[in-house]
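Q: How would the structure tokens look for this protein?
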Amino acid sequence: MATDLLTPPLSLYVHLPWCVRKCPYCDFNSHEYRGAGAPPFSAYVDALVADLEHDLPLAWARTVHSVFFGGGTPSLFPPEAIDDFLQRASARVRIAPEAEITLETNPGTAEHGRFEGYRAAGVNRLSFGIQSFDDACLQRLGRIHDSREAEAAVRMARDAGFDDFNIDLMYALPGQDLAMAAADVRRAIGLGPTHLSHYQLTLEPNTVFAARPPADIPDHDAAYDIQEHCQAILADAGYAQYETSAYARPGRQCAHNLNYWRFGDYLGIGAGAHGKLTSPAQGTILRRWKVKHPSAWLATAGTAQAIGGDEFLEPARRPFDYMLNALRLDEGFALSTFEARTGVPRAAIADRLAEAFMRGWIDSDGERVVPTELGRRFANDAISLFL
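A: Here is the predicted structure in token form.
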């Protein structure tokens, strides 16, 4: 027997697909810009607004609580383009006054004066894709910046008034040992971020690294040692782990990503963007994604042809989709929230929760389910129980 769906919080994801150079490990929908001049910023903003208008019937009268500009390299877009989009978007959908508005930035595209412009446009949080402070590692990863540029970019942002920013780091890099990974974390902490994302390098399908894997990537045990060691460094520095790869100062967790991980709703606009929208009246959860290639999306934005696909999540599929992220969170989840956001009664997953408990992967007081340390280490196995 189904339970009633309730409307979760709503976010807005904006995909800006261009980058200067495609990194060999990257499987995101990012495209090197080739040709004279710059990407068509103004035309792309017009298309974003059209895309938003087309999807608005899925979220009438709802408030957006966070906005995230992802890519690609969003900092290729000038502040004027970001300002234009935010002004036009706020005329079409209510953006909460306290909304977290994040822009991803590559240190190799940071220019003096840009951060002031982004802040004036309404961006109040930055995410720096630094990945490493070791120049040799950066070269192996195909990054366009070096460690000096990375530190300079963060300092420019702080000088521009940004007091809330994330640093992305990767570990288990080609040629990296534990001491090198720890040095990266310490240099990041020295720049005073409010949030730090610490991801293990993985060889994703359809990437250069998957086709030609580097020979000197640390093995699984070495990667786990790095993770544990760096986690301790971050904890000592006051960064609490709240998700498998996310650490934050108190009160500075990423609201946008938390909404994803808690099975919230999000409008996804731009080339290849994904969205998820709940309709309690119809008892449906819709996943929608847009056409991936920028030129094809630009030609169709604002029409049904820009939709790459729609999928209504059947109730039998919802527990897995929910657990895919909820079991990565240190806070776990409340069973009442699971029911409200999936429309699936807790009784439907009771046997699988019991098995996860028996294996030592979760703790539960009958209402709240929390992954154990063992469960976090074997998160993929715990999540697979709900397939």
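The chain has a mean pLDDT of 95.

The domain at 318-384 is CATH 1.10.10.10 (Arc Repressor Mutant, subunit A).

Upvote if useful.
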